[in-house]
């Protein structure tokens, strides 16, 4: 362990001392084991020094305050007792800080999250910079945890119960302006005068806390334990509906606040430490923490070892449809790279422009963005019906119809009209990239870049290298996707790549259950209960039944019999059911549809279905998900994905596989390969070969091995 210290105390001539936190050897400040003892020592020194009249707490890192407790330290806890001790140690030092008789002001620039915000809350006042990196929040819930450094107690006392619950249950990050408005900070200033402003505040002395600004209704609700209990019950109900009981943290957060507000801070902190410890040791938090570690690790990977990404300064998007519009939008809005959209029709072009404009304008309406900033970003997006102004494009992303001949034409056009180095990235969801590259004279520049709809919301992209894609093309495409705010996984070429391939079998199984007489809403509910964001029938309506019908035979042809879709697509399309897009699918749409989504019962007749009694929810969920698990392992076996980690990230970020399970591979480790293989064999004898376990699983079942070591 380093002998360097985390804290530095500087005494100024005016009597204000600056306490600077700077964890040695790390890019970001986090609360580590040495935090407690070190700050305790310093606080004693400050207390004993009567020349110190005020204290400013700040960070020595250029662009972060404190990003919270060190998650690695939490993950290393061996027992609830370990974790509880950590939380209680935090309580003790934070209350010492709060108990200082001199004024204590936090000066915040950059991320101030979790335990970092809890540190700031223990100060008497807070000033933050107006930098765009400055974000305040308690994201613990996203790690399956709760704020365990007094946050569940100090936050509601500062900003009110309703606001605090919202922050803790969503984990959302608050920007400076909003933080000021809600009373989370006392002032917002440019970073250049941050510390000076904090010093001036400290000189003014401790001030009585201003009453929280909040609505009349919340004032009323928070005024007595009786009305507060109504609020807590309401919050609990909402949370149970949202989490389906799969995540233990939210209910525990509510309980901490309830007990703390009704029985006082001491009791509240005791409950907080107990619940925190319990959550640290939960399997849900372990899975969510592994996601955090996986995504931070992936941020550093180039996608092709040794290759250096080329700088992308200009992008062209072919096709102004839903996908093309979305891709152009994240290119200009997130990556801030000029994008030129080409479509054969003016209509397509105006669609793409209005797609981007609407998203930006939402930001203006919510006051996250000025109209000028919106217009500046819009000016990065230009349109054309000809190949003009694209000679210097570094990447062309193609999002036209799924038609191989058309894609070949695009490849040829781009090779003719653009530069030698221009990358041709196809957003195809089903055609193998190698087949598209077959028409290229520079196949090393051809790659797949598969987005998910809606592009601005779905965090994943698949980057697909075919056999001769160059490492530089891979690295450039990966870096480009990351600039668009995406998490890229590099996968190998093959029908359906990874995500759609595992999704297809899961969807087919749901369709099979439907044909066996299981009700549509029952199927959807069973999988939502399991932890998916929407059920398979809703998903098919959203994606488009016609789209599913188009992809299905390609997968069957390339990957085999097990991909054969149940005979339903023809009948559905024969009845003109495409899903939400044409207002006709499994559910009712349009002006007559009720707010609560209702099944369009006439679909049962179209499919000649006799409704049977509901199977157990968990059996329905198992039968569908087990197909996904088996196929995910097959993708690893075939080298389609490079690692179990990539497979887990792909399924969670691309499909919404339940995050608390950690992804298909981590879930298989939890279930045990032997157990899974036995279950697959059971289904195989009932329903046939599509349930035959893949080789790797059979091997793992016999030798007891796992995908992960921990
Ligand atoms: C008791 C308390 O209530 C419990 C807690 O506080 S739990 C922790 C709550 N805090 C969080 O969840 C925040 C986690 N961090 C983040 O979301 C992001 O890192 C961030 C938004 C702060 C910055 O993102 P970004 O600029 O992309 O940097 P990113 O690459 O993620 O992180 C930089 C480094 O800091 C590390 N880091 C950031 N936060 C960390 C944390 N809380 N614990 C451990 N390491 C952390 C990353 O692992 C990475 O390390 P490396 O460079 O050695 O690989």
TrEMBL record:
3-hydroxyacyl-CoA dehydrogenase NAD binding domain ranges (all copies): 314-493
EC identifiers of the protein: 4.2.1.17, 5.1.2.3, 1.1.1.35
Top-level taxon of the source organism: Bacteria
Region (3-hydroxyacyl-CoA dehydrogenase): 310-710
InterPro entries, alphabetized: 3-OHacyl-CoA_DH_NAD-bd (IPR006176), 3HC_DH_C (IPR006108), 6-PGluconate_DH-like_C_sf (IPR008927), ClpP/crotonase-like_dom_sf (IPR029045), Enoyl-CoA_hyd/isom_CS (IPR018376), Enoyl-CoA_hydra/iso (IPR001753), FA_oxidation_alpha_subunit (IPR050136), FadJ (IPR012802)
Main location per the UniProt record: cytoplasm
Location within or outside the cell: Cytoplasm
Domain 3-hydroxyacyl-CoA dehydrogenase C-terminal: 496-589, 620-704
SUPFAM superfamilies: 6-phosphogluconate dehydrogenase C-terminal domain-like, ClpP/crotonase, NAD(P)-binding Rossmann-fold domains
Family the entry assigns: In the N-terminal section; belongs to the enoyl-CoA hydratase/isomerase family.
Protein name: Fatty acid oxidation complex subunit alpha
Organism (species): Shewanella ulleungensis
Designated gene of the protein: fadJ
């Amino acid at each position: 362990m380093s002998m360097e210290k985390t804290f530095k105390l500087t005494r100024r001539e005016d009597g204000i001392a600056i306490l600077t936190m700077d964890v040695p050897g790390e890019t970001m400040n986090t609360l580590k084991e040495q935090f407690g003892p070190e700050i305790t020592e310093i606080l004693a020194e400050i207390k004993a020094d009567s020349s110190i009249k005020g204290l400013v707490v700040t960070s020595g890192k250029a662009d972060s305050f404190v990003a919270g407790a060190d998650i690695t330290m939490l993950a290393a806890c061996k027992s609830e007792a370990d974790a509880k001790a950590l939380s209680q140690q935090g309580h003790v030092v934070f209350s010492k800080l709060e108990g200082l008789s001199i004024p204590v002001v936090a000066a915040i620039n950059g991320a101030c999250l979790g335990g970092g915000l809890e540190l700031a809350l223990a100060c008497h006042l807070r000033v933050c910079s107006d930098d765009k990196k400055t974000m305040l929040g308690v994201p613990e819930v996203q790690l399956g945890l709760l704020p365990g450094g007094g946050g569940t107690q100090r936050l509601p006392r500062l900003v009110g119960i309703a606001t605090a619950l919202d922050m803790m249950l969503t984990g959302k990050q608050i920007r400076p302006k909003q933080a000021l408005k809600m009373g989370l900070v006392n002032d917002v200033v440019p970073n250049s005068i941050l510390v000076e402003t904090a010093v001036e505040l400290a000189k003014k002395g401790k001030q009585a806390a201003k009453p929280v600004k909040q609505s009349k209704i919340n004032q009323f609700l928070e005024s007595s334990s009786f009305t507060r209990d109504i609020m807590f019950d309401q919050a609990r109900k909402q949370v149970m509906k949202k989490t389906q009981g799969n995540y233990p943290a939210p209910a525990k957060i509510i309980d901490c606040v309830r007990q703390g507000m009704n029985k006082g801070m001491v009791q509240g902190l005791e409950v907080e430490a107990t619940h925190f410890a319990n959550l640290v040791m939960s399997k849900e938090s372990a899975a969510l923490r592994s996601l955090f570690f996986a995504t931070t690790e992936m941020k550093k990977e180039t996608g092709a070892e040794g290759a250096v990404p080329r700088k992308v300064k200009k992008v062209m998007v072919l096709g102004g449809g839903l996908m093309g519009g979305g891709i152009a939008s994240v290119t200009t809005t997130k990556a801030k790279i000029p994008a030129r959209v080409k479509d054969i029709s003016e209509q397509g072009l105006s669609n793409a422009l209005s797609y981007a404009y609407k998203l930006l304008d939402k930001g203006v309406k919510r006051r996250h963005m000025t109209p000028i900033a919106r217009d500046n970003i819009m000016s990065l997006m230009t349109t054309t019906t000809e190949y003009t102004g694209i000679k210097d494009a570094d990447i062309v992303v193609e999002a036209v119809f799924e038609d191989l001949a058309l894609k070949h034409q695009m490849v040829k056009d781009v090779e003719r009209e653009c530069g030698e180095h221009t990358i041709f990235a196809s957003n195809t969801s089903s055609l193998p990239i190698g087949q598209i590259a077959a028409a290229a004279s520079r196949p090393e520049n051809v790659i797949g870049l598969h987005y998910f709809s809606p592009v601005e919301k779905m965090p994943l992209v698949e980057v697909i290298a075919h056999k001769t894609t160059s490492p530089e093309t891979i690295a450039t495409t990966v870096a480009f996707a990351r600039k668009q705010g995406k998490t890229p996984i590099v996968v190998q070429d093959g029908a359906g790549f990874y995500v759609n391939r595992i999704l297809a079998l899961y969807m087919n199984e749901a369709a099979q259950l439907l044909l066996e007489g299981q009700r549509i809403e029952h199927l959807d509910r069973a999988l939502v209960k399991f932890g998916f964001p929407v059920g398979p029938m809703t998903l098919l309506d959203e994606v488009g039944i016609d789209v599913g019908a188009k992809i299905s035979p390609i997968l069957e042809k390339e990957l085999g019999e097990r991909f054969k879709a149940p005979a339903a697509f023809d009948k559905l399309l024969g009845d003109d059911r495409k899903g939400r897009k044409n207002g006709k699918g499994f559910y009712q749409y349009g002006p007559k549809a009720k707010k609560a989504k209702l099944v369009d019962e006439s679909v049962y007749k179209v499919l000649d279905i006799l409704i049977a009694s509901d199977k157990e929810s968990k059996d329905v969920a198992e039968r569908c998900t087990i197909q996904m698990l088996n196929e995910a392992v097959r993708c690893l076996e075939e080298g389609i994905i490079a690692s179990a980690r990539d497979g887990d990230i792909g399924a969670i970020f691309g499909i919404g596989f339940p995050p608390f399970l950690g992804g298909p591979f981590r879930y298989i480790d939890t279930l045990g390969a032997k157990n899974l293989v036995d279950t697959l064999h059971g289904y195989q004898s009932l329903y046939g070969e599509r349930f035959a376990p893949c080789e790797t699983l059979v091997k793992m079942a016999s030798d007891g091995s796992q995908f992960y070591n921990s």
